[in-house]
Design a protein that fits this description.
Blueprint (H helix, E strand, L loop, with lengths): L4 H9 L36 H16 L7 H12 L13 H11 L18 H12 L8 H12 L6 H4 L5 H11 L1 H6 L6 H12 L16 H4 L5
Helix pairs in contact: 1-10, 2-3, 5-6
Organism: Ectothiorhodospira magna
GO molecular function: molybdenum ion binding
Protein name: Nitrogen fixation protein NifQ
Length: 234
C-alpha cells in the first residue's frame, strides 16, 4: 500500500524523538538497561529491580520450558516476558491480531496458558505506516520459519513508540535487537552496513523507496546530526 509522503517524512524525522504526552494509548514503563560488560541471555536484564527480575526470569523460564525448539523460541519468550512485565510499548497481543497471537503461543509454547495484559488495541491512525514497515521487513526475511511474519508485525508495531526500537520492544539492549534482525531479516542487516540506529534506518529505507528527501545534508558523513542517526543507543 503506498505510503503518504508527508506522513512518512514526519515519521522519519521523529523516529527517535520523544512523542508528546497523550499521543499514544499504550502502557509504558521506564526501560531497564543492561550493564555494559555483562552479557546476558536474551531473557534477562541486569538492571531490572530484583522483584521484577524474578518475575521476568520466572515467566521466561516457564515459556522456554514449553518451547518446541523452533527458531525464535527464545526471542519470542524474551518479547513476551518483557511485554507482560510492562517493558516497552507494545499494545494488546504484541500488535498481532488475537488469532495470530494465540497461534504463535500454540506453535512455540504449546500447553502454556498465558493471560495477556489488559492493554488497548493497536491505534488505527498509522495503519498504512505500520503495513509499509511490515512489508519492508518481510521483503528481507530469511524464509526459515513462519514466526518471521509475526516478528515483522511486532517490530512494525514497536516502531510506533517514542524511543529506540530495542527499548520500545522491551529488550534489554540493542544487541538483542540486532540478533533478532540478523536471524530473521538478514537482508536489512546487510544494507545497514554503517550501523544506523534501527528505527531511523527502517524509515530511511521507506523514504528511499518513495524517493522522499528527508535530509538536507549531502551525505551522512558530513551531517552535523550524525550522532542522531548513528552511534550508541542508550
Amino acid at each position: 500500500m503506498p505510503v503518504n509522503p508527508s506522513a512518512l517524512n514526519m515519521a522519519a524525522s521523529q523516529a527517535v524523538m520523544p512523542v508528546p504526552v497523550g499521543t499514544t494509548h499504550w502502557k509504558k514503563s521506564p526501560h531497564r538497561r543492561h550493564r555494559a560488560g555483562h552479557p546476558s541471555p536474551v531473557g534477562g536484564c541486569d538492571a531490572v529491580a530484583e522483584a521484577d527480575m524474578y518475575r521476568a526470569d520466572s515467566l521466561h523460564g516457564r515459556l522456554l520450558a514449553h518451547a518446541r525448539g523452533l527458531p525464535n523460541d527464545d526471542l519470542l519468550a524474551a518479547l513476551l516476558s518483557a511485554w507482560v512485565g510492562g517493558r516497552g510499548v507494545l499494545p494488546a497481543y504484541l500488535g498481532l491480531s488475537g488469532s495470530d497471537y494465540r497461534q504463535m503461543l500454540g506453535r512455540h509454547f504449546p500447553g502454556l496458558t498465558l493471560n495477556p495484559p489488559a492493554l488497548e488495541p493497536m491505534e488505527v491512525q498509522r495503519l498504512d505506516e505500520r503495513r509499509d514497515l511490515q512489508h519492508l521487513l518481510l521483503s528481507h526475511r530469511r524464509g526459515r520459519d513462519p514466526s518471521e511474519v509475526w516478528l515483522a508485525t511486532i517490530v512494525a508495531a514497536a516502531c510506533m513508540g517514542p524511543d529506540h526500537l530495542w527499548q520500545d520492544l522491551g529488550l534489554c539492549n540493542r544487541d538483542h535487537l540486532t540478533r533478532l534482525m540478523r536471524d530473521n531479516f538478514p537482508g536489512l542487516v546487510a544494507l545497514n552496513a554503517q550501523d544506523m540506529k534501527w528505527k531511523k534506518f527502517l524509515y530511511r529505507q521507506l523514504c528511499l523507496a518513495e524517493d522522499i528527501l528527508i535530509c538536507r545534508s549531502p551525505s551522512c558523513e558530513v551531517c552535523q546530526d550524525y550522532a542522531v542517526c548513528f552511534g550508541p543507543e542508550v
